[in-house]
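thread from #wetlab-drylab

HS: before we spend reagent money on co-crystallization trials with iron/sulfur cluster, can we at least see a predicted complex? here's what I'd submit
DV: go for it
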Amino acid sequence: MADKDTGTDPAQNAGAQDYQAITLKLRDEVKKLLQNKDMKYVIGWTAGSYGLRISPVFIEDPKDLDKLVWSPFCINSLAVYPTLEEKLPLPRGTPEDTRRIGIVVKGCDSRGLVQILSEKGFPREHVVILGIPCTGQIDPDKFLPLLVDKGVAKNIKMTDIDVTDQNDKFKFKINNIEFESAKAEVIYDKCLTCKYPNPILFDIQLAPQVEPRAKAGEGYEKVAELSSMTDDERWAYWAEKFERCIRCYACRDICPVCYCKECLTEKWEPDWINKSKNLTENTMFHITRALHLAGRCIDCHECERTCPVGIPLLEIYKRIEKEIIDQFDYEPGLESEAKPVFSTFNPDDPGQFIL
Ligand code: SF4
Ligand code: SF4
Ligand code: SF4
C-alpha cells in the first residue's frame, strides 16, 4: 500500500506512456486478482458504444479481460462506484457479500477513494486499488474540431484511433491519416493544472510515476478574478449561471464524495430545497452542495464535466478549497488515515466567527 508520502519518485519520472503495454499489464494483474475466491469484480474502463466515449466495466469473469483498456480517453472517475454499488440496500434476509472489489484509478480518481476512506465510507481492506500514473486525458470538445480539420469523420470511435504518447505531444493515426498535436491543445483544462497525476494510494502500480504539471498554490486565477468583483457583479455572474441549472443532479450523482444515503435535496419533510426549478431554489441547492463539500471536494472536476448546461461548478468549489488550504493547511483526498478537516478541532484554529 502507498500513500501521499510516496510522492513522485524523481528516479522514475516519465512524461510519455505506452498505452498498449499498460493495458496488457492491467489485464494481467486483473487476471491474477480474479483467481482469488474473495474477489467479486474489478472496475475498469472499456470503449464506449459511440464516439470518443469510454464506459466503466465490471470484470467478474476472466473471459472479459480483453474489454479492459487504458488510453488517454479514460476520463471517467470510477471512484464513485464503491459507494454506489457496494452500499445498495440488501433485500431482507440476503447476507452481505463481503468479497473484495478492485478498482482502477488515475491520480485524481485516487483522491476520491482516499477521501472516502478517511471518512470511513468503506473499509480499506474491502478494496484493491490498481493505480495508473496519468499523463493527461483528451477532451473531446477540443479534439473533435481538430479531427474535422484533418478531414476525419466526426463519428469515429476511440477504438479507431491509434494514439501514441510522445511526452509533450500525441501522435494520432486514424485509418490512413496521421497527425500530431501538442498535449496542451487537446487535454482537459484540469489536466493542465494537475498537481496529483500519480495515484496517492494504490496496491498495484501499473506504470512509472510522472511529473505533475502544476505545483501547490497554482490554478486559482479564476478564484482571484471572481474575488475581485463587487458583490453585485458576482451575484449577477452567478445568477446567470444558476438560472440555467435544470436540477438534473448529474453533478451530485457523479461526485465520489457525495454519497449520503439520504440526500437533503430529495427530502419532502422538511422540504429544505423545493423541487421547483427557479433561481431561488437553484441557488439554495448550489450553496448547500458547496457547503456539504467544503473540505471534502477533491478537485476531480467530474461534476463540471458532466453538467449538461455547462455551469462552471469548480469556480465555486475551488474558492472553498483555497479557503480551507489557507485557513487550515488541509487538502482533502491526500491521506487516508487523516481525520477530515471538520472532524477535528485545534485551539489555534481561526475563530473570528465566534462572538
Ligand atoms: S487531472 Fe491529472 S490525474 Fe486526472 S485525468 Fe488529468 S492529468 Fe490525469
Ligand atoms: S449537473 Fe448542472 S444542470 Fe444538473 S443539477 Fe448539476 S449544475 Fe444543475
Ligand atoms: S464536487 Fe465535483 S470536483 Fe468536487 S469531488 Fe465532487 S465531482 Fe469532484
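DV: The longest helix spans residues 19-34.
HS: ok that's useful, forwarding to the group
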